[in-house]
Write a structure and sequence with these properties.
Strand 1 and strand 2 form a beta hairpin. Strands 1-2 form a two-stranded antiparallel ribbon. The longest helix has about 30 residues. The protein is mainly alpha-helical and about 300 residues long.
Length: about 300
């Protein structure tokens, strides 16, 4: 075939290729509504009110906010918040995966135990759980593991030496996340059609290959939005650890303004850090949704 023929057929081939979507000139755009101008006006009013009430309001003391935003004590409290979030999230997701597997198991004992765990976690306030764990040494003074038929223990330690402020906060938040993430995992796995599992079995695939290559990639797309919401909630719930004396971001700013009496600026510092880190987490969520949502139209 000559070069002239190739160049002559190329435009037709490009027109037939619809994988990239219709050209811009052929796309259908919604006709503007007259009511849209009303919402544009409302938006402008909200922006003006926000500027006057927040940005241009001297009572917010933005100069003080700028002074404390990167203060050493504030950054130390922020680091404690991130450490607690990472540890509690990792432990909570692991616990949630185990509970979800038990919830979907064929064994009725495992299913019942997982159901009772989720039921208790949903009914117990996180704050009460943190307090209970922190004072659990009053109920269980020592932690030990006896060896059957022998008068010895594998370990025997004082509970107060194990349950510190950090460990109590970490375990309490992880238990909370485990109960909620277990239901998220279960709902995501249940969203995959059973026919695909039957097809994998018919092809001779093992359970591990079926879950890893077929079920989980589809379930992740369903799991990401609610799980990201729970992890963001976990990040904010670290402020509850102040009730047991763990010094995180919010506790740090409270300790500072208790002596400087600059309450509003320091609370603004904490809120700005929460807003910034939550925004980063949301950006990560959007990237994951885009990655695992390829080929799926909403």
């Amino acid at each position: 075939m000559s070069n002239e023929t190739v160049h002559a057929l190329a435009p037709a081939a490009r027109c037939d290729d619809t994988s990239a979507g219709p050209p811009a000139a052929l796309r259908i755009h919604a006709r503007p509504k007259k009511s849209d101008w009303l919402w544009y006006g409302v938006f402008c009013i909200v922006v003006v009110l926000f500027y006057q009430g927040v940005i241009d309001n001297p009572r917010w003391q933005w100069d003080v906010v700028a002074t404390y935003l990167f203060n050493g004590r504030v950054l130390a409290g922020l680091a404690n918040t991130l450490i607690l979030t990472a540890l509690a999230s990792a432990l909570g997701l692991l616990l949630g995966g185990i509970v979800a597997a038990c919830r979907m198991a064929d064994n009725p004992v495992l299913r019942g135990a997982a159901f009772v765990y989720i039921w208790i976690i949903r009914a117990t306030p996180t704050l009460a759980m943190l307090l209970f764990l922190f004072f659990i040494s009053a109920l269980v003074p020592r932690l030990y593991l006896p060896v059957p038929f022998l008068n010895v223990n594998l370990f025997d330690i004082d509970t107060s030496n194990v349950i510190s402020r950090l460990s109590a906060a970490m375990i309490g938040l992880a238990i909370y996340l485990g109960g909620h993430s277990a239901e998220i995992f279960r709902s995501g796995l249940a969203a995959v059609d059973k026919g695909q599992r039957e097809a994998c079995k018919a092809m001779g695939m093992s359970d591990f290959r079926m879950m890893w290559h077929v079920v989980i990639p589809q379930a992740v797309r369903v799991i990401i939005p609610p799980l990201a919401n729970e992890l963001i909630t976990m990040f904010k719930n670290t402020s509850l650890a102040s009730v047991i004396g763990y010094v995180e971001l919010l506790t740090t700013v409270q300790l500072i303004y208790s002596t400087t009496f600059e309450t509003i600026p320091l609370l603004s510092v904490a809120c700005l850090w929460y807003l910034f880190l939550t925004s980063l987490a949301m950006c990560g969520q959007l990237l994951l949704e885009k990655r695992f949502g390829k080929g799926v139209h909403a």
